[in-house]
Amino acid sequence: MRGKSQGAVHLALGVTASRIKVPRYICYCPLCLLAQKNEHGEYYWIRDWQVPGIESCSKHGYLINTQLSRSNAERHRFIAAAPEYCPQVPQIPCASITTRISTQVRQLLERPARPSSSHEQWTAYYQDLAFQHGLNRGTGHINHHAVKEKVLRFWPTEWLARYNLTPAESDDDEEDWVRSIFRKHRKCFSYLQHIVVNQAIIGESWRIDSVLDQVQQYPANKRKPPVEINKISNFDLSPDQESWQRLLSCHPPTRARKIAPALYARLYRKHSNWLLDFNASHAYDRSNLTSKCKVNWSERDQVFLQALHQVDVLLKDNTDGPRRSKAYFQKMVGFSTTYEKNLNRMPLSKAFLDAQAESVEDYQIRRLRNALEELRQSYDSPSRWRLLRISKLSEERMKRATLKYINSLVQ
Q1: How many Cβ atoms sit within 10 Å of the Cβ of residue 234?
Q2: Coil, strand or helix at 363
């Protein structure tokens, strides 16, 4: 890949937590690859082609999907752009919507690294954006229905659905991302979500690079230090505070919050310091609580050990698969994390895992043995580079024991 690796791009784009899913296949532009071959003598991937939301090349037309899937399991494996993966096929001219997305995303890719804007700055920007374009009700409310209509009028429904960006049908749906982006920001939004909203409201003249600079101009509010408030006498308590006192006389704070959530919310807004102090004084002292039932760890040790032996028998018949670490054995057994946290209380199971768990060196050597067995079907003495290629190992990451083993194989 050109530029950052695919894994690094995933982290930079926040793909893991985003509602925008990564395309299934690696894309390419046939005419761009042909120009690369004529100018440089080889093909290479362009970073822009792999960004979710970019569907076309600005010069030639829609991108073409290869048969190379973007698998997270092998995201670090290098695959060179080659004619067998990227055949020359006709391209369809791109639509205006794909050009808009490509233009904005390219600005993001070319933008130098800068500190990210805070949630407070984004909140202030979107509030001003709504008021500047008449998408408000009165002086302090956003007309979310009008915002949603603008988005649906500008962007095709099919395209929004393809990227999981379709607004909610109800104007009062709290899970609607179009509604959330104009409210107080408590999380980050994807670049495509920002593009969809700003393009629909501002129009063709906007630039995402200018918007990011504009957001940076808003004050980044920092949390104010807690203000110490003197103890309030019972005569100065509000009716809500008195109600909360009576409620905590019968229930713990957690239970009381579930019983009267509206009362808790009002107190948290108006008397947060008093509420937290009062709850702390009525919390249970868990240090004096004793467990009602004692666990027979010796019996659990026997059950866990028997399950581990069964997994070990299955694994011995299969030389492939990932590294058989302690975590892998526990995952294969399928027991809860209670066993993992209390492994020191189960000496038999712990001794078994210490003896049978595969180290990194053992795992690398097992991969080399599998590669040797596969290559000996075609070669009497496989070369070093073939062993490394089939086993998917590199000289830089091999351990000392693995280096000795591969040297002995080559000799």
Answers
A1: 8
A2: helix
* Amino acid in the structure at residue 342: N
| pLDDT tens digits, 267-307 | 999 999 999 999 988 876 555 444 445 778 888 888 888 88
Q: Hey, is 25 helix, strand or coil?
A: strand
Residues 121 and 125: their CA atoms lie apart, in Å, by 6
Angle, helix 326-333 to helix 297-316, in steps of 10 degrees: 100
Amino acid present at 167: P
In this structure, are residues 20 and 54 in contact, taking their beta carbons and an 8 Å threshold? no
Question: Concatenated DSSP letters for 253-268?
Answer: HHHHHHH-HHHHHHHH
Give residue-wise pLDDT tens across range 308-349. 888 888 888 788 888 888 888 888 887 767 777 888 888 998
Model confidence pTM above 0.70: no
The span from the CA of 323 to the CA of 331, in Å, is 12
103 three-state secondary structure: helix
102: left (phi over 0), alpha (psi -120 to 50) or beta: alpha
Q: How many CB atoms lie within 10 A of CB 271?
A: 19
Q: How far apart are CA 135 and CA 296, in angstroms?
A: 64
Tell me how far apart the alpha carbons of residues 17 and 20 are, in angstroms, rounded to a whole number. Answer: 9
E strand or H helix that includes residue 84: none
Amino acid letter, 244 = W
